[in-house]
Amino acid sequence: SLPKIFVTRQLPERGLNPLLSHAEIEIWPERQPPAYEILLEKVQQIDGLLCLLTDRIDEQLINTGKSLKVISQMAVGYDNIDIKAATNRKIPVGNTPGVLTDATADLTWALLMCAARRIIESEQYVRAGSWQTWEPTLLLGTDLSGATLGIVGLGRIGEAVARRASGFNLRVIYSSRHRRSKEIEAALGVEYVEFNRLLQESDIITLHTALSKETHHLISYAQFALMKRSAILINTARGAIVDPQALYQTLKSGQIAGAALDVTEPEPIPLDSPLLSLKNLIITPHIGSASYQTRLKMATMAANNLLAGLLNQPLPYCVNPEIYS
Ligand code: GLV
Ligand code: GLV
After folding, report:
1. Its family (predicted)?
2. Residue range of the domain that includes 122
3. At 73, which CATH number?
4. Which of 73, 180, 185, 258 maximizes the CB count within 10 A of its CB?
């Protein structure tokens, strides 16, 4: 009989095509993700799991899946999965790097421009009927030309953000755990600086690191204190990289100019969060990779990873390839 797989949400149509003749597929039909208890029950009956950021794939869940052969996540990040527990059981974990790089870099720039030129406030101003006349000091933002863009984490997405900067006459600096080669720096037109210096010198700071113990609340009170009063913070990476209380205090007191977030801690942001009362903050609901083309590519890639795992082949995109050696 065919191997059984569980897909934790409905995916873009055609995304599961690679799996159709190879597996018995169960798809969670609800809009909300399956509760952890449901996942625990499902995982006992399946060979493959296709999951999302919204699923907690912890050690207990992984060890409960006695017949589980592969975990395939439709996302580039995998901070919701206990990779060590999967590796201990020699279960490969797949992800979807690369295909969402451009979409996420595009959204980063969209938020950056919205924050710099106060687009959301301006739009609300028009709809509220406040537009009376052209005014010399109405809704003034900040120029990108001549400004310094600081990229925290120069991986695939950070690089794609840097590449998009070239037409704006920006100085681009970056900090990173691993400094990139001189050739890559020259090709991207970026300059390496220490993290604290990046915080001090940037007019716009954009975060592109993975979430880990080291990057949890990487931006908190001490880091905000180093930033310029005119600084704008962009986060399209993971919410928990920024301490939300520190962000609130900082924006509320005008210690930096503004922020734009596509990710929050927690997600979704509670409606009573004080952050939602701030005018100098833009929030979108984790839509970095949300384009038709990109989501189909992600789903197809996740399906191909899953299929490889079911067929005992190495996953095309595996986050724990050490299980093969
Ligand atoms: C989205 O946030 C992803 O990690 O793919
Ligand atoms: C994600 O794809 C990254 O490496 O930035």
Report:
1. Belongs to the D-isomer specific 2-hydroxyacid dehydrogenase family.
2. 101-283
3. 3.40.50.720
4. 73
Do the beta carbons of residue 214 and residue 241 sit within 8 Å?
no
C-alpha 152/C-alpha 204 separation (Å) is 11
pTM of the model: 0.96
Q: How many domains does the chain have?
A: 2
Could you give the CA distance from residue 278 to residue 283 in angstroms, rounded to a whole number?
10
Q: ipTM value of the model?
A: 0.69
Tokens 């210096």, residue located: 197
C-alpha to C-alpha distance for 98 and 173, rounded to whole angstroms: 22
Q: Which residues are catalytic?
A: 238, 267, 286
pLDDT tens string 4-36: 999 999 999 899 999 999 999 999 999 999 999
CB 233 within 8 A of CB 256: yes
Q: Which residues neighbour 108 within 8 Å (Cβ) at sequence distance 6 or greater?
A: 157, 161, 206, 208, 234, 236, 288
